[in-house]
Amino acid sequence: MTGTGIHIQGLGAVSPAGWGVGTLLKAVEERQPRVATPSTCPPGMDPLPGRRVPAPDPRPGFLGHSRLRRASAISHFAMAAAVEALGGGPGASTSPDRLGIVLGTHTGSIRYS
Prior knowledge:
Blueprint lengths: L13 E2 L2 E2 L1 H10 L6 E2 L10 E2 L22 H13 L28
Antiparallel strand pairs: 1-2, 3-4
């Protein structure tokens, strides 16, 4: 298809490797698996290993926004990835009426997704 005019301006990522595309790429290049820690489970259940996303350092200012105050961690991750993809936040060189954001998340086994 020609003449679609689709342009990818930026990327953003939050993963167990850390916050940002750079930290994710570094982890992939190093081929070092992230340490799995046991999850907290109800009594009588065996804990499952998982790789947690580390806390951001420093904490992004947008996480203090009133609309994100009660949001889940996955919403915080999605916002951080979107802000990174837009070039750091407000003032990115995009036209609001021509902007589309594609968000992909993975929160479980591919077998069941």
